[in-house]
Amino acid sequence: MKLLGNKRLLILMLGLICFIALMGLTLGKRQQTTWPEKFLGDTISWTQGLFYKPAGYIAGFFEDMNQMRTIFIENKVLKQTLTKYARDTTRLNDLEQQNKRLQEALGFTERQKQANNYTFRIAEVVALSPDALNNTVRINLGEKDGVKPNMAVVSVDGLVGRVMQTFSFYSNVQLLSGVDDTANTSKAISVTIKNRENESFGIIESYDPASQKLIMTKIDPNDKLQVGDEVITSGLGQVFPKGIPVGKVISRKPGNFGISHEAEIQPYARFDHLREVFVVIVPEQEETQ
């Protein structure tokens, strides 16, 4: 029985092989297919399309998600790079501005050494007065650095003010924009005209915040002071040393009572956005330290 079963299986396989071979020979000789073959082929193609399109959509979805993740990561890295670039650019600009100011300060001290026998100690402005009417700034030099009250303070452009109060490591500076003729007369600045020190004389007693000009008073009517002259400290008041540039004359007119004249002075120094200033120490002051 077992042998008979094996023979039947062998005959069935041989018959299937012959049928397949016959079908291949028949299809190879004819060009047209029968309607059952067409029906079967169309059915298979339509069925494949049902599965192929959703599979393509799903594959495309995951591919798009992967691309979006890649773009997100690239954008994050780009933002970090731009932020770092902006921060570095800002720091570079600050360093360039500081370097420019320090170069100007170096040139200033060299010029002043040739003009006067003064010592200029550079200081950084670390704070402004919260009171807008007080017009004071704080610098990072104090008693430990030899700074004393009433020492003159200048910028690379001209006179800024005077030391008003000192601490161990800091000092408060009264700006020229805080000069007030109703206040203590010790704030008055004795000035003269450059290259005519023995011919001109006046006192700067106030500052006009509206016009941002210094007011020079007590000018003799016969004084040769005129518009365009450069005003410098005269050194007569024993607070501000001689020869420090203050500003330029822009107008002159008779005073209130006609006894003397007064003039408007455009200050050389700006009193806002101060960064570095110099405390002026004259030889006599250094000897008393």
Can you write the helix and strand succession as a string? HHEEEEEEEEEEEEH
Main beta-sheet strand count, sense and barrel state? 6 strands, antiparallel, barrel
Instruction: Trace the largest sheet across and list its strands.
Output: 1-2-5-4-3-12
Distance between the termini: 133 Å
Radius of gyration: 47 Å
- Say how many strands there are: 12
The CATH topology of the largest domain turns out to be Thrombin, subunit H
Low-pLDDT residue intervals, each spanning 5 or more residues: 181-186
How large a portion of the residues is in β-strands, by DSSP E? 25-35%
- State the share of residues found in helices, binned by percent: 25-40%
The tally of structural domains comes to 2
**CATH class annotation of the largest domain:** Mainly Beta
What would CATH call the architecture of the largest domain? Beta Barrel
DSSP helix count? 3
Mean pLDDT: 76
Structural class based on helices, strands and sheet pairing: alpha+beta
CATH superfamily of the largest domain: Rod shape-determining protein MreC, domain 2
Shape, please?
rod-shaped
